[in-house]
């Protein structure tokens, strides 16, 4: 049997999908993986989105936001997890993992929110102010709806990155689909390598399913006029035709 047949046999083995004395089963590992991902994304949204909205609306601190986002991207996830576990203790491994995943999710969320609001046509914002709208109403009723495609794009990017990185939970004795990769490497046998490949396939499949789900959600919540369009100031300006001069004959 070649490697593809071995992986397929492992994925279709009913024993791997059931709770038994060796493992919790693939469904339980998927649930653990989604739990780590969802927890990190919730905290990252609570941190990054308000900051991105404030900076994008006011224009203050934009340079600092870009710098912080780039700094967070440069963090080595596995090294940071090990450092936090050593500092906080194995009993707080889940908290350490969550901190690392939140740090990983913040840059794309922050960049998507900030860029979305900064790309809103200033003339639209000025028109809203001219109508007497308060700043809070301008943010939530004008800027955020227009910026929603970029904001959701940042959410999708952050979620995929967290799903891929959540595999490091297995290094700290936690669960998730990374358990198959780490345990398979530890065995060092053909069965172990098959488990590693199967775990990698499951992680990739989970990422694809989540991406398609978020893409469907984005299609539902984003206005049809904003889908698949690149807005510029020139495109959003109201174009008027010049008034043609006509001569009136007086008899």
Structural overview:
The chain has one domain: MetI-like fold (Orthogonal Bundle). The chain has 251 residues and is mainly alpha-helical. The chain has helices at 3-11, 26-58, 62-73, 77-88, 93-118, 122-130, 135-165, 178-187, 190-221, 233-236. Mean pLDDT is 81; it is low at 231-251. The chain contains 10 helices and no strands. Helix 6 packs antiparallel against helix 7.
Summarize the SSE layout with pairings.
Elements: H1 3-11, H2 26-58, H3 62-73, H4 77-88, H5 93-118, H6 122-130, H7 135-165, H8 178-187, H9 190-221, H10 233-236
Helix pairs in contact: 1-9, 2-5, 2-7, 3-5, 4-5, 5-7, 6-7, 7-9, 8-9
Q: What is the overall silhouette?
A: elongated
Using the coordinates shown, work out and report the CATH topology.
Answer: MetI-like fold
Fraction in helix? over 70%
| Uncertain runs | 231-251
Q: Quick one: biggest sheet?
A: none
- Count of alpha/pi helices: 10
In CATH, what is the homologous superfamily?
Answer: MetI-like
Q: What is the radius of gyration computed over CA atoms, rounded to a whole number of angstroms?
A: 25 Å
Percent of residues in beta strands: under 5%
Distance between the ends: 100 Å
Characterize the quaternary organization of these chains. single chain
Category by helix and strand content: mainly alpha
């Amino acid at each position: 049997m070649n490697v593809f047949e071995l992986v397929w046999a492992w994925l279709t083995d009913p024993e791997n999908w059931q709770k038994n004395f060796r493992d919790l089963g693939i469904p339980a590992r998927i649930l653990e993986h989604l739990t780590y991902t969802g927890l990190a994304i919730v905290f990252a949204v609570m941190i990054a989105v308000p900051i991105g909205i404030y900076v994008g609306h006011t224009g203050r601190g934009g340079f600092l936001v870009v710098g912080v986002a780039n700094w967070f991207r440069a963090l080595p996830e596995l090294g940071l997890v090990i450092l936090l576990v050593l500092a906080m203790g194995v009993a707080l491994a889940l908290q350490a993992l969550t901190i690392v995943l939140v740090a990983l999710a913040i840059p794309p969320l922050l960049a998507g929110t900030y860029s979305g609001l900064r790309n809103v046509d200033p003339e639209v914002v000025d028109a809203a102010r001219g109508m007497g709208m308060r700043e809070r109403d301008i943010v939530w009723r004008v800027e955020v709806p227009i910026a929603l495609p970029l904001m959701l794009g940042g959410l999708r990017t952050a979620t995929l990155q967290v799903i891929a990185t959540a595999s490091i939970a297995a290094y700290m004795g936690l669960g998730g689909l990374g358990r198959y990769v780490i345990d398979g490497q530890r065995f060092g046998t053909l069965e172990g390598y098959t488990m590693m490949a199967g775990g990698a396939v499951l992680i990739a499949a989970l990422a694809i399913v989540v991406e398609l789900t978020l893409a469907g959600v984005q299609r539902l919540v984003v206005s049809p006029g904003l889908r698949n369009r690149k807005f510029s100031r020139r495109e959003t300006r109201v174009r008027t035709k010049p008034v043609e001069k006509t001569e009136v004959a007086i008899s």
